[in-house]
Amino acid sequence: MATSTAAAAGLFATDEVRVEGRSKVSGKTQYTADVQRPGMLWAAFTTSPHAHAAVVRIDTSAARRVPGVHAVLTSADIGPGKRSGRRLQDMPLLAYERVRFIGDRVAAVAAETRAAAEEAARLVEVEYAELPAAFDPFAALAPGAPVLHPDYETYTYLGAKYHTYTTPGAPPPHAHPNEQGAVHLTFGDADLEPIFARAHRVFEHRFETPRQHAGFIEPHATLVWIDAAGIVHVHTVNKQPFNVRQWMSAVLDLPRERIVVESTAIGGDFGGKGHTIDEYVCYYLARASGRPVKHVYTYLDELQASSVRHKAYLTLKTAVDEHGRFLAHASDVVYDGGAYAAGKPGPNMLPGAIGYATIAYRVPHARVNVRSIYTNTIPGAHVRAPADPQVTFAWEAHIDAIAAELGIDPLELRLRNVVRDGEAALNGETVHESQGHAVLAALKREIDARPAPPGRAWGVALSCRHAGPGKTAVSATLREDGTIEVVCGVPDVGCGAYTVAQRVFAATLGVGLERVRVRGGSTGEAQPDPGSGGSRVTYLVGNAARVAAEALATEIAGGAIAPIHVVGEWDGNRPEMAHPMEYSFAGFGFDVEVDRATGAFVVHDAVLVADVGQIVNPLGHQGQLDGGFIAGFGLATMEEMPLGEDGQLLALSLGDYKLPCIKDIPPLRTIHVVAASGTGPYGAKMAGELGNCAVAPAIVNAVANASGARLREYPVTAERIHAALRSE
Description:
Layout: H1 5-12, H2 21-25, E1 41-47, E2 53-59, H3 61-64, E3 69-74, H4 75-78, E4 83-84, E5 88-89, E6 91-92, E7 98-99, E8 105-111, H5 114-123, E9 125-130, H6 137-141, E10 156-157, E11 179-187, H7 193-198, E12 201-209, E13 221-226, E14 232-236, H8 241-252, E15 259-261, H9 278-289, E16 293-296, H10 299-305, E17 311-320, E18 326-338, E19 365-374, H11 388-406, H12 410-417, H13 436-449, E20 456-466, E21 471-478, E22 484-488, H14 497-509, E23 516-520, H15 537-557, E24 564-571, E25 583-594, E26 601-612, H16 618-637, E27 668-674, H17 695-707, H18 718-726
Parallel strand pairs: 1-16, 14-15, 18-19, 22-23, 26-27
Antiparallel strand pairs: 1-8, 2-7, 2-9, 3-8, 4-6, 5-10, 11-19, 12-17, 13-14, 13-16, 17-18, 20-25, 21-22, 21-24, 25-26
Helix pairs in contact: 1-14, 11-17, 14-15, 16-17
């Protein structure tokens, strides 16, 4: 019989033992790069040294003569029209006619050894004719700019509903040939000028954020093999296996039932493993060679050619009354989308659904314009909280600048404007239960209890985010020995998804954890799942596990005899299931000291106030908050991917691209503000993208309060602080 909510909470209060933990710490877990197959070949690619060039001629004869080479392919061998994309299929599997960024793939090789494959790839001769290039979105929009995708209208587009891929059709029209996508939104009065004209004050600021890598240590890897029955087996680090199967079916003209994406451990994602093109090319190499084919990225590949967080340019303009209450707002956001939009799953071809974070404040009248633009740079894609760090940084730094001009305490200004229960946030969506005020109040108490000494100052920032919708199911079988096997279609990217399912299942049935065994299944075995992403795994998989456990309890109560098989489904796309846009809030405070002579800064203290519901995995939940904080700290203080004059990225190793290590991280205190309810199992709320979005603006605001240097970009560095101080 199903257990009570109180009994479930008792189980959840105990620290968890990770389902896959013993396998990982013992070294038994196999990641994609570890998987071997008899007769396996290695793949390598010939890539473009030019940011934009016509492909005049390709000669593969020298590559074919390298000992051990079994296949060399160009676009002519696989079909020039073969392109991939999560939503808009605009990225050729192998470039034809032109290349669009340094690192674009032109040819593929499969050989007995990795060394032989890489040697052969170097020997492919490609004649290029360089074309004019655009390295930022404003150059791409300027009169006379080169058109990067002149055949855009011929591309395939997979539907306009965010979580549904429909029958392939034509892409939506765009306002400029180099525009990937755009959203134009208005809330309240469309004409803001009269409101700006009669406002007490109007403030306008411009911000810029860098392109950044997701920072995972496990590189992208793929292994494809075709069995005797013609079934294509795919091992991949992609976190959305059922979508991979669908995309491969569409691109390769294969029925879905002939493609099986195998269940493989993923060693960290951080939002960056939702798109690769290796699966397609490895399939063609496997078909040409008759052998399994594997490809593993080097870190040069990762930093030069895998998808990255979008560089952004943001202009914010806000009108306020004499008390600092927001009257109207206008945002103009331009993203550098890179050479291809293929890595973006949203129908608008923007990072996230609309390219604009949920802003946790009441703004009765607003206009938001967001565009993503093609450039001859590394393609942009989704990374942890795709648009939130960029937009939250701009908003929260904007608010502090307004507070300073008005002489109002920055926390007080936020408290006056934060969205309340039943009000609409600045995306038009109703916040049913707002914890924003409670988070800010708790943050104020923490800061007031620890006043910064002379020469130091606190800075704060607020963010909010919701768990994404989607539809999933888990299957469960009660065995004759009393154990229960639960199979999930979602891959565990290191966040403890299977442990969530185990604990929810055990709590619902009222049985010991040792009786519930959870594992991932291939697309040929598990129920369909949208994959990890959008902070939705606990919400979707946890609820599906609870439904399956309740179904099993009903079968047992009805006298069914083992083995008993049930399926639990949760459709988070259906509004009657729950409020699909339930928000979680997070507030950060940083105590920072700045050396005004050099610009060097030190973070002495950090506090995170987190809006939580029922916590299912206590250690995992805190790990998500800590990990988000560390990721946000890296984005805020050291991570960026600048370009040289020719479009070449200048950070091509983890020696150049700085990721924070434990010695870089300041102490963090976490305060929980508990919500009355959450839409996850037993009232759980999202945590995955809660901790990284507001770190940069809180640090920037602390630097401004400590030194007077008000930065409009990050990462925050001594050089930028010093330059800002000298420009006063």
